[in-house]
Write a structure and sequence with these properties.
By secondary structure, this protein is of the alpha+beta class. It has a domain at 81-183: Ribosomal Protein S8, Chain: A, domain 1 (2-Layer Sandwich), CATH 3.30.1370.110. 28% of the residues lie in helices and 11% in strands. It has helices at residues 2-12, 47-52, 81-88, 105-121, 145-154; strands spanning 96-99, 126-130, 163-168, 178-183. Helix 4 (105-121) packs across helix 5 (145-154). The longest helix has 17 residues, at 105-121. It is elongated and about 100 Å long. Mean pLDDT is 77; it is low at 58-67.
Length: 187
């Protein structure tokens, strides 16, 4: 220890302190931390009060609700790439089929909603949804109404949490007139 002190003194022996500059400002006194308010003493709790009321949940513990990302054809959220690729190639076992041919928009919407909720409850994973390509005798603007509407319906709040992905079906399963839906597993 003494050796260190001697070494230090030799190292700083020729050091000259810098001149003090007058800045015109008074030297600042060290700031005192502000006095914290003292909480009033709590009234003694009665044992019966604790038995009746459960403790309030801490705001830090509450789960934050995530709003699901909008689905787009071929894109997937919370699904591994291998499963998405199998879905696109039609390599997943189809657990259920829903054919919307010949239904009105209202009928098709209701049928799709009921079918998805039922399929999720039954633990089904991959669904083939047949929309058809649209009537060729109708005007181009009216052609394929169900095909255009299904993606919107899949993004509705009542259905979206259950659907992980969708993509156009392979030709053997209906091609442009059908979709594969990948449903979330029930936990």
């Amino acid at each position: 220890m003494a050796r260190d002190r001697d070494l230090w003194r030799r190292a700083v022996a020729d050091v000259v302190p810098l001149p003090r500059r007058a800045t015109g400002r008074p030297a600042l006194a060290p700031a005192k931390p502000p006095a914290l308010p003292v909480p009033p003493p709590a009234a003694p709790a009665r044992p019966a009060d604790h038995a009746r009321r459960p403790p309030a949940p801490s705001p830090a513990i509450r789960p934050v609700a995530r709003s699901p990302v909008a689905l787009e054809a071929g894109a997937a959220v919370d699904v591994d790439a291998r499963s998405v690729e199998r879905l696109k190639r039609g390599r997943m076992a189809i657990d259920g089929r829903l054919d919307l041919h010949g239904l009105t928009q209202a009928e098709a919407h209701s049928a799709l909603h009921r079918f998805i909720l039922s399929a999720v409850a039954q633990g089904r994973r991959c669904i083939l949804l047949i929309t058809g390509r649209g009537g060729w005798n109708s005007s181009p603007a009216e052609r394929g109404v169900l095909r255009r509407m299904v993606p919107r319906w899949l993004n509705e709040p009542s259905v979206r949490p259950h659907v992980l992905a969708y993509t156009e079906a392979q030709p053997r399963d209906g091609g442009g007139g059908a979709l594969y839906l990948l449903l979330r597993r029930r936990r």
